[in-house]
Every structure is written in C-alpha cells, then in structure tokens.
Amino acid sequence: MRDLRKKLSEPGILILDGATGTQLQGLGLPPGMAPELWNIQNPEAVKCHYRAYIEAGSDAILTNSFGGTRPRMDMEQSGHLTHQANVAAAALAREVAGENVLVLGSLGPTGLLMEPMGELTTEKAIEYFAEQAAALAEGGADGIHVETMSDLREAKAAIIGAHQATNLPVTVTMSFDMHGRTMMGVKPADAVKELWALDVLAVGVNCGRTLEENLVALKEMRNAAPDATLIAKPNAGMPRMEDTIEAVYDVTPEIMAEYGLKFAEQHVKMLGGCCGSNPAHIAALKKVLQNFTPPPLETVLAANEHASRNGATDSTPQRQRKSRRRDG
Q: What are the structural domain ranges in the chain?
C-alpha cells in the first residue's frame, strides 16, 4: 500500500528525487520548451527521467508538472493541454514507480502575482491549483507536493485547492533565496507556523541558493515549530555559466551527502535535491542516510538556539557522526 502518511510515521528518512528540468534537458528537451509538454510528446524520455531517480534510491519521485497550472501552460500557448499534461505526468510516474515508490504530484507557482501586487485573486488561484491537483490524482499520484513558493498566500491557495479537489495528503516547501526570506519577504519561522496549521504532512524548504542558506532556513523552521514534520530539497549550490550556455553546479554528490547529514540532524523526514542535483546526488544521500539516527530533538533545538544567539551559521550538535548511525 502506497501510503505517505504511514511512511512518514516510520523510522528513517524518505529520500526524494533531484532536479527535473536539467535532467530532461540532458535527455534532449529543447531549450525554452515547457517540460510538461514532453509528458505528451515524449513520454519515454520522461519515464527515463523518473526511472533514473528510482534506480538511484528515491523512495518518492515528483511528477513532471511543476509548471502545470493553467496560467503557466497558457504562457506556452498550451492551456488547452493542462488536464492532459498533468494526468500524463502522474500516469507515467505511476507506471515506472510501481507499488514500491511513492508518486508526489508537483504544484509550482502560477507565475502570476497575487493581489494587491497583481491581479490573481485567492479564489482564482485556488481554482487553478484544484484543477491541476485533480488531474494529478486522476493520473495516480499518491500525494501532492506544493513547491518553490515565494508568496505565502499562493502557497496557502495551492494547499486549499489540493484539499478541495482530492483526498490526497499534501506537503509544501518555500524558497528562501533573498538573504533568509522568500522573494516576497516571508521568513521561515512565519512560513512554518502558518503552513503547518493547514493540515499538511510536511513543511520545509526547497530550491533557494546555497546548501548552507537552506540549512539555516530549515533550522529556523525547526525551532519555530518543534513538532512539525520537515522536508528539504535544496539546490546543488549556485549555478555558474560555462560558454554562456550551460549552467554548471559545483556541489558534488559527496558535498550533498555531507550536508544531507546536517539536514537529517534537524529531524528532517523527507530529503532530496533541487536545481543542479542529479541521480548521483540522490544515490549519495541514500547511502549516507540509510542507517542514520538523529540526536535527541531537545539537543538540536538547544544547539540551534545557541547558534542563533551567537550569529553562527552551523549549529550542528558536536558529536561524532558515527555515533548517530545504527549498525546495519
């Protein structure tokens, strides 16, 4: 039985997948093309993408539907394919995942600004997200993952829309890429308090800038909501351009694994990668975390608080990592 709620209640960390867009580009997705259209036009490539992460050890994969809301599809002159593209995104993942790997339907931002800065109303945003979530559920998703949100109101609209349209569990992450805040000025502590109250299974961080900045944001969430189930899907560092064409990420799988331990110490229950990460990064996380046991939560909270008061960026409890792993 594919049950996200049950899985999160068990010991251990649920390993997620990594980047989608860059992986599909490596499989031949043309520059500038909406990845969601490949769910219809090149399903074998999308299944290849999903399969690579499953083979790397992902316990759950996200659907290729990040830009699958109707406004985003309209920007690609493909609004009429919204339902079809989202059903296909989940159905292809379901086909590859089988019964042993969870499929989480990805809901990304609409690309529109919410009122009063823009014209998108909360009611319309809920309608857009409900439409997408319903299609992902139809395709066989086991849960809905709201990700890379900057506006707290849009994140809430996505959660409400998913709840209205489906009976699936919902998780949510925001992107803190502006010196500890989202682009819309949201602080991690405020985000976790408000989102955790909306009947979600997990709250956390994704994308953002560096691994360290994501870790700091997650620590703020942990101390602001000690009882919350946390999720992290950080970038593999900041991209740099080579030959003015290709974005290169310098975080190696080994570095990702090292930081994976730091995220895990915060009692994270779902962990993967975002931009720049690939199956090798996920395999490294899977290997280093398979027998991991975090320090007591009280120790973590105290270390985070001490680091915050002293302006430190790394509040990792000072214990040997070996002692935090169970013998396999």
A: 4-324
Measured CA to CA, the distance from residue 117 to residue 15 in angstroms comes to 37
173 close to 221: Cβ distance less than 8 angstroms: no
Token look-up 């939560």 returns 297
Dist CA 134 CA 195 (whole Å): 21
Is 3.40.50.720 the CATH classification of the domain at 4-324? no
Query: E-strand spans in the chain?
Result: 14-15, 60-62, 102-107, 143-149, 170-174, 202-207, 230-234, 239-242, 246-249, 268-271
pTM above 0.90, yes or no: yes
Q: How far apart are CA 69 and CA 85, in angstroms?
A: 10
Q: Torsions phi, psi of 227, nearest 5?
A: -90, -5
CB 61 within 8 A of CB 105: no
Please state the three-class secondary structure of 21-79 as a single string: HHHHHHCCCCCCCCHHHHHHHCHHHHHHHHHHHHHHCCCEEECCCCCCCHHHHHHCCCH
Are residues 84 and 38 in contact, defined by beta-carbon separation less than 8 angstroms?
A: no
Q: What is the largest CA-CA distance in the chain?
A: 55
Q: What is the pLDDT of residues 60-90, one digit of tens each?
A: 999 999 999 999 999 999 999 999 999 999 9
pLDDT(240) > 80: no
Q: What is the C-alpha separation between 90 and 176, in angstroms, rounded?
A: 27
CB 174 within 8 A of CB 150: yes
Cα separation, 98 vs 101, in Å, equals 6
